[in-house]
Amino acid sequence: IRFDSWSDMKAAFRDRYCNPEALTVREIEKPSPRENEILVRVHATTVNRTDCAVLTARPFIMRFFTGLFKPKFAIPGTDFAGEVVAVGQDVTKFAVGDRLFGFKDDGLPTQAEYLAVAEDRAIARIPAKIDYHTAAASLEAAHYAYNFLNKVKLAAGQDVLVNGASGGIGSAMLQFLKHFGVRVTAVCNTKNVALIQKLGADTVIDYQKEDFTQIKDKFDFVFDAVGKSTFRKCKPLLKDKGIYISSELGPKAQNPFLALLTPLFGGKKVIFPLPVDIPRSIKFISDLLETGEFKPVIERTYPLDKIAEAYAYVMTGEKTGNVLIGVRS
């Protein structure tokens, strides 16, 4: 095992569920890897919608995964990109010097200078030409985007509408859909129209100028990547066997129930995209990073000392693409 000469590190810290203003950055003891763990020097991480749920325990159901009364990790986070600086004696998959990225959607203490993590977690080597910032921004949102697509049968020439195409999930989803050769109508705000056109959308609807639910076009799939619409509003947009998928439970938590009920009637239906199999997602993402078919959108980068500001911004719901924490320049 190789260790650096100092024993402390900077880390975001909270000892209870809290809002961003209660999140601090402090010096704490650097972790040591156990027999089956690797020690990663974190170069970059993101602040994303999952992180906000892990920080605040909202919705309440998050507590069943992150700790009922208090968070299981004092250091928040879910994703990372970094370099292996030490390995436990039983580690066989990775070695010192490996460049890795990884993600765990119920929390991983990644918003720190170092992370000790078991080698059997959802971790992979970063593709050779991909930098740490790009790698970190290619995980959380892209995983959820892929878990829309792998719930349906996509074919070239199909028509798909993506609501929220400029967010982290939506901007990844748009690029993935173009990989499969489908025609994409993307919904975004005025300031991001040019970005969405550059990412390959066939048609762009500016929701600040037009209500996308009132258009006359019909789609095989409507993907709501921000959860701000409903099946009822989007149903007229669907073809006879069309499918609606949302990233959220719905305003009355109806989407899981609709996913059970609507298939019974044989027409338009709802699918609820349970995000499983992170290693499968990372493999798909890595392949598209290597071919250049996917490049995550990064809107802002904050230093670790400004992480509370990053959370506050993400929680406005107005971010474009991903918000990054540059732990190391």
What does this molecule look like?
The longest helix has 14 residues, at 278-291. Strand 14 (298-303), helix 10 and strand 15 (322-326) form a beta-alpha-beta unit. The chain starts with 7 loop residues before the first strand and ends with a strand. Strands 3, 4, 5, 6, 7, 14 and 15 form a 7-stranded mixed sheet that branches. Helix 4 crosses helix 5 (168-179) and helix 4 (140-149) packs across helix 9 (278-291). The protein has helices at 49-56, 63-66, 132-136, 140-149, 168-179, 193-198, 231-234, 255-261, 278-291, 307-314; strands spanning 8-13, 24-29, 37-47, 79-87, 99-103, 114-118, 123-125, 159-163, 183-188, 203-206, 219-224, 238-246, 269-271, 298-303, 322-326. The protein is built from 10 helices and 15 strands. By secondary structure, it is of the alpha/beta class. Helices cover 24% and strands 27% of the residues.
What radius of gyration results from the CA coordinates?
A: 20 Å
Distance between the termini: 25 Å
Q: β content, as a range?
A: 25-35%
Please tell me what the overall shape is.
Answer: globular
Structural class designation:
alpha/beta
Number of strands: 15
Q: Which stretches are poorly predicted, pLDDT < 50 over at least 5 residues?
A: 1-5
Number of helices: 10
H-E string: EEEHHEEEEHHEHEHEEHEHEHEHE
| Portion in helices | 10-25%
Mean pLDDT: 96
Largest sheet: 7 strands, mixed
Topology at a glance:
Blueprint lengths: L7 E6 L10 E6 L7 E11 L1 H8 L6 H4 L12 E9 L11 E5 L10 E5 L4 E3 L6 H5 L3 H10 L9 E5 L4 H12 L3 E6 L4 H6 L4 E4 L12 E6 L6 H4 L3 E9 L8 H7 L7 E3 L6 H14 L6 E6 L3 H8 L7 E5 L3
Parallel strand pairs: 8-9, 8-11, 9-10, 11-12, 12-13, 14-15
Antiparallel strand pairs: 1-2, 3-4, 3-6, 3-15, 4-5, 5-7
